[in-house]
Amino acid sequence: MWHSEKFARSEFSWNPEGEPHACGEPSSFITGKLRFLRSYLRTSPSPRLFLRWLLLFLMLSALLLSIASANESAYRAELDKACVGSRVLSVVAHADDDLYFINPSIDEAIARGACVHTVVVTAGYVDDPNNDARQRGLQAAYALMLGESGLQWRHSERQLAGKIIEHWQANSTPRIELSFLELPAGAHDDLRSRARPNLYRVFADDAATETTGTPMQRYNESELIAVLRAIIESYDPERLLTLQATRAYPVRHSRPVGEGDHPDHVIVAKLTMLAAKDLPRLRHIIQHDDYPIQDRPANLSAEQAARKTAILHAYCLQDRRGCADPERLTPDCDARNDSHWGAAWLCRHYPSPVARPAPIKR
Ligand SMILES: [Zn+2]
């Protein structure tokens, strides 16, 4: 109950104290150096030496900011050239949520020549923060969707809203992008299952958490919203796709079947909605129902289900935990299924557009 009250507050009356930082604020690197200079000033007997340090620090900061800004300008210019069709940005909790719940939308967007960019907020699994297998899995799945086996990827670290974002772009075309924020993942049935803050505690308690990747970043809730907003503004998508923001969580096996949802999914969707609030150029936001679709009627054609399964299979060959058994992955399209949840998801797709104010002309 608490989380829905919080969402209502954040969604409809913006708290200025929690307002996102503007893109281009000093990075955590710079704030770290400022802390060092403050302590130096308190202890150093030599003001002239301090002034030299200060000058060096300011020059270094200006250089870093101008490099980041030039990189962002080049990135946007490349997108403007490549994305003559629409741009589709997906924000999901885990690598594979896009394949299980948002597809076939991403696959169809790639087929019609659109640019797609998928942002994954957490890394790894609740008991294993290593993200390598999940990243490789998504790269294999997007290579299959693009129809390029052996697709190579270009890695970079983008700086947005004071954070460093791990970013991959297909080598052969700028149309396909993946970004990983690498916050620690939570369990589907336990809100406080980890000693260090996971996504639920970042959202519920505003407890800052550390990312699991290198370089390590620290995020609290408003910083996470600011980064998501900066990614959305920078990409300027026509369609923003995410998971369902209104489900109850966590998954409780005592609940009626099909009711409980993964906390990471719901929280990422809520934060994405907050990040996208009042962006005037964004035309369409579409949420996608996820775990509970297992109990809704199958609604994909046999051909669509087979394609979705093939894409998941490519993913699970790299991350075998993503499927119960990658070698025997088959859609379960019965009205009532008792098999692995993933099998039921393969022939179901429940997008729901969110009402938006009339868009400003692009
Ligand atoms: Zn998930």
TrEMBL record:
The chain crosses the membrane at residues 49-68. Pfam families: PIG-L. InterPro entries: GlcNAc_PI_deacetylase-related, LmbE-like_dom_sf. This is LmbE family N-acetylglucosaminyl deacetylase. Keywords: Membrane, Transmembrane, Transmembrane helix. One of its GO terms (molecular function) is hydrolase activity, acting on carbon-nitrogen (but not peptide) bonds, in linear amides.
